[in-house]
Amino acid sequence: MVIEIVGVSKSFGRVKALSNVSFTVRNGEVVGYVGLNGAGKTTTIRIAVGVLPPDSGNVFIDGYSVVKEKKNASRLVGWVPELPIFESDFRALDYFTYLAGYYGYSASDARRIGKELLEKLGLGDALKKKLSEYSQGMRKRFALAVSLIGDPPNFVFDEVLNGLDPQGIAFFRNLAIEFRKQNKAVLFSSHILSEVEGIADRVVFIHKGRIVGDYSMEYIRQQAQPAIELALTTVDGKVLKLLEKHGEPVVVSEKRVLLRKPISDSSQIVVELVTAGVGVLEVKKHEKHLEDFFFELIRKAEGG
Ligand SMILES: Nc1ncnc2c1ncn2[C@@H]1O[C@H](COP(=O)(O)OP(=O)(O)OP(=O)(O)O)[C@@H](O)[C@H]1O
C-alpha cells in the first residue's frame, strides 16, 4: 500500500552509494526508479526490502520499519532481486510448488498456478528444467513468478524488464495495470527511461546516490515533445497568432520562438511567415527523445 524511503544513506568503505535518499511510493502507484549503472538503485532496493541495513535513515513498508520491525515489513513486500539465486538442484515447477506450500497452497493448486504463471512468462518449455540450467534471464522470470505467490500489497523489482522478452514485457505491463487496480505500491528500477515509459505513473531519478528528480510520466512526456526553434526578424503579437495555428509558441528571447508540439511541417510554417512579411533567419528542429530528459537532469546535477 505504501513504501516510504526516509533519508537513507549508505557507504561501502569510501564509496558513498546513497546520500539522504527519500521518496514515497503510494497506494496504487507504479513508480519507475531510473539511474545509470552504479547510480544506487540496487542498494536502495536491497535496503527497502530489509536485506541490507542502511547507515542512517529508514524505510517503512505499510508503516513497519525495515530496520526495527523487519519481519513484519518483509512480509508485506514482494521483490525480485537484480541477480536471483535459487536452490539450483530443484526443477522449476517443483520448486515453485514447494515455495507456494509456505503460503498455504495445496500441492495441486500450487502446480496449477505455477504452470499458468511460468507459461505466461515464457517458461512453459522449461517447467521441468533444473534451475541450475536456467539462464540469468530465465531466473529473473522465475523470480517474478515467485514474488507473486504471496500476493503482497507492495512490490520492489530490480531491473525486472532486463531479461524479459517482448511477451514477458507485455506480461509485466498487464501486471502493473492489475497492481494499480489493487492499490498496491510498486517500485521498479531500470537504467532506461523509455523502458519504463508505458508502465510507470511516476519516475524517480537517481544519480551518484542522490535523488535528482521526481516527475509524473505525463510531465516527462510533455517535456520530451519535439519542437521547432525559429529565429525571426520580429516576434510580435501578429507572429505569435500565426504560430498558434501550428503549435504552442513560447518566446525564448527577443527574436527567438520555440514552437512546442508542432502540428505542421516547418517548411509550411516558414512559407506562411515569409508571406506575412516576417524574415526567417534560422529554423532548427528539436527531435526530443525521452532519454534527453534524463540526460538533462544528469547534466544539471553535475552542475553543467
Ligand atoms: N557490496 C558492495 N561493496 C562495495 N561497493 C558496492 C557494493 N554494492 C554497491 N556498491 C557500490 O555502490 C554504488 C551503487 O551501486 P548499485 O549497485 O546500488 O547501483 P545500481 O544503480 O543498482 O547500478 P546497476 O544498474 O549497475 O546495478 C556503486 O558505486 C557500487 O560500486
UniProtKB/TrEMBL annotation:
CDD domains cross-referenced by the UniProt entry: ABC_DR_subfamily_A (cd03230)
Picking any one GO molecular function of the record gives:
ATP binding
ATP-binding recorded as keyword? yes
Family that this chain belongs to: Belongs to the ABC transporter superfamily.
**Which UniProt key words apply to this protein?**
ATP-binding, Nucleotide-binding, Transport
Task: Provide the protein name.
Answer: ABC transporter ATP-binding protein
* Gene3D superfamilies linked to this entry: P-loop containing nucleotide triphosphate hydrolases
Residue span, ABC transporter domain = 3-233
